[in-house]
Write a structure and sequence with these properties.
The complex is a heterodimer of chains A (290) and B (265).
Chain A (H helix, E strand, L loop, with lengths): L2 E10 L7 E11 L4 E6 L5 H7 L8 E6 L2 E3 L9 H6 E4 L12 H11 L4 H14 L16 H13 L5 E5 L7 H18 L2 E5 L3 H7 L2 E6 L2 E6 L1 H5 L2 H6 L6 H11 L11 H19 L1
Parallel strand pairs in A: 3-8, 3-9, 6-7, 7-8
Antiparallel strand pairs in A: 1-2, 1-4, 4-5, 9-10
Chain B lengths: L21 H14 L6 H18 L3 H8 L3 H14 L5 E5 L2 E4 H27 L2 H12 L9 H31 L9 H32 L18 H20 L2
Antiparallel strand pairs in B: 1-2
Organism (chain A): Vagococcus carniphilus
Membrane topology (chain A): Peripheral membrane protein
Function (chain A): ATP-binding (A) component of a common energy-coupling factor (ECF) ABC-transporter complex.
Chain lengths: 290, 265
């Protein structure tokens, strides 16, 4: 599903002493079947931007087109449910949204709100539990008896159970152990590849951006500073360092090597790309020696 | 939702009123509410009105905010005023219909009550707009201290008060966050009939309670780990300073009271 921002401005509490303008003239297009990463410093407006993606917030100026619906400042708050069904948001620390007696009921809560039958939604709950890597024995447990990491998985399953076309992830792996993080990110990537789900990822981890995303947006102080393929944006290492935005580990390493006179055909973004480049050069070097 | 409420919020600033000792401000506000009941004619209300406007002027905060502060309460005020106008008797009768009478005294009482409400709201808005919540808690702790003689837990109360005040914004954020998360999962807040509305609140309330319990537990552990053992033998980091201008406020209020006694009929 295409999402398009046209000259979107957003102000919190307009016309009050606490007025605060957060987004300035945002023009952005997120095409279907893409994996978009949104990065920026804390307070750059990322979270505000993503709440526009399923009409939790409405622009104070401009328009947001979500699929076939156009959201303008005048849009009525009614009948937004179809959008919410298509665009699922996994908020930061989503485990705080759990409330039902059992894990199964909590996961089924979303689908039921959108009119899926009780049986059907419980079946969905089982599938989703499996998808996020928990087995069936968790179905009847209370979500509050689980560990933090497991609660996170249940909460994410609850969002995925609505079968959204677009999944928005606001730092989905914050506070998880490295293993859980990798599993989770790989699972989202699989969903994206296999089911063609649009993923929009808000993160501070540039390694994740380099690894998974095919489109990247850099926000700063409520304005879009750069957008494009991560390769393009990460190629300007000096700029990123200046802005203190962070560079993927592999790219940084390559950049240091370049400082020592090493040359790359293209700047590697991930560890495997870096390894490939180095291996190729070493082989070429061997050939040269002989 | 809460954004419209001006009463109870703090606007940082640097003015005469901002820099007053919170104790003098708190006591003065309560005293003001007390002496406003001394007023019984238009001249005395005029004196109080002028005084309030002067205090607002000293705070360097635009009058607009104060008027906004009255807005959420306007229906309550109007309701009271109308009841007063319709059911008071005495003096010249302008209009009579069944049990309803609009009389000279009724209209007068209505007007008094209106001014009284507005002035009280202005004054309490002034207090909260110019005083950070934590200073207020300090002031309350200080003022409650004499009650220790009768075994009143002044420290505990003020600790709870300052923790509660500190967590109001955090809990508001949390509420907003959970509400959004549940809306994204298809919950409609504030729609449908009363039963549906109440049902929609469950997915908000339970997570809020659970997170409050967790937060309380974490906070208690963190406090113990930092050596908190109760109120006895603690020193204070934020010390309140009574200055010359606070004495001036007290004197002004004494003069104001005298003037009121003089002009009231």
């Amino acid at each position: 599903m295409d999402i398009r921002f046209e000259q979107v401005d957003f102000t919190y509490q307009p016309n009050s002493p606490f007025e605060q303008r957060v987004l300035f003239d945002i023009n952005l297009e997120i095409p279907s079947n893409s994996y978009t990463a949104i990065v920026g410093h804390t307070g750059s407006g990322k979270s505000t931007l993503l709440q526009h993606l399923n009409a939790l917030l409405k622009p104070t100026k401009g328009s947001v087109t979500i699929g076939d619906r156009v959201i303008t400042p005048e849009t009525n708050n009614k009948n937004l449910k179809p959008i919410r069904k298509k665009v699922g948001i996994v908020f930061q620390f989503p485990e705080s949204q759990l409330f039902e007696e059992t894990v199964a009921l909590d996961i089924a809560f979303g689908p039921k709100n959108f009119g899926v039958s009780e049986e059907e939604s419980l079946k969905l709950a089982k599938d989703m539990l499996d998808l996020v890597g928990l087995d069936e024995s968790y179905m009847e447990k209370s979500p509050f008896d689980l560990s933090g990491g497991q609660m996170r998985r249940v909460a994410i399953a609850g969002v995925l159970a609505m079968e959204p076309e677009v999944v928005i992830l606001d730092e989905p792996t914050a506070g998880l152990d490295p293993r859980g993080r990798k599993d989770m990110m790989d699972m989202f990537y699989r969903l994206h590849k296999e089911k063609g789900i649009n993923i929009i990822l808000v993160t501070h981890l540039m390694d994740d951006v380099a690894e998974y995303a095919d489109y990247m947006v850099v926000l700063e102080k409520g304005k879009i500073h750069k957008k494009g393929h991560p390769r393009e944006i990460f190629s300007d290492v000096t700029w990123l360092k200046e802005k203190q935005l962070g560079v993927p580990t592999a790219t940084n390493f390559a950049f240091e090597l370049m400082g020592k006179g090493y040359e790359f055909s293209q700047l590697p973004l991930t560890a495997s790309e870096l390894a490939d480049e180095l291996a190729r050069d070493l082989k070429a070097g061997d050939a040269h020696d002989e | 939702m809460m954004n419209k409420l001006i009463l109870g919020r703090y606007i940082p600033g640097d003015s005469f009123v901002h820099n007053l000792d919170p104790r003098s401000k708190l006591v003065a506000s309560f005293y003001f509410i007390g002496i406003i009941f001394l007023c019984n004619n238009f001249l005395s209300f005029g004196v109080m009105f002028a005084f309030t406007l002067f205090a607002i002027f000293l705070s360097k905060i635009s009058l607009k905010f104060f008027i906004k502060g009255v807005k959420p309460l306007i229906w309550l005020i109007l309701f009271t005023v109308i009841l007063q106008v319709l059911f008071s008797q005495g003096g010249e009768v302008y209009f009579k219909w069944g049990i309803f009478t609009i009389s000279e005294f009724g209209v007068q009482n209505g007007a008094y009550i209106f001014i009284r409400f507005v002035l009280i709201i202005f004054m309490s808005t002034l207090l909260t707009l110019t005083t950070p919540p934590l200073s207020l808690a300090d002031a309350i702790e200080y003022l409650l201290r004499p009650l220790k003689v009768v075994k009143f837990p002044a420290h505990e109360i003020s600790l709870m008060l300052s923790i509660a005040l500190r967590f109001v914004p955090t809990l508001m954020d949390e509420t907003e966050k959970i509400m959004n998360a549940q809306r994204a999962r298809g919950v409609d807040f504030g729609e449908g009939n009363l039963m549906q509305k109440m049902k929609a609140i469950v997915p908000l309330l339970i997570p809020l309670f659970v997170s409050s319990f967790n937060r309380a537990e974490d906070l208690a552990i963190a406090m113990e780990a930092r050596g908190y053992q109760g109120g006895d033998g603690r020193t204070k980091y934020r010390v309140l300073h009574w200055q010359g201008k606070d004495t001036m406020v007290v004197i002004t209020f004494a003069l104001l009271t005298a003037l009121l006694v003089f002009v009231r009929s």
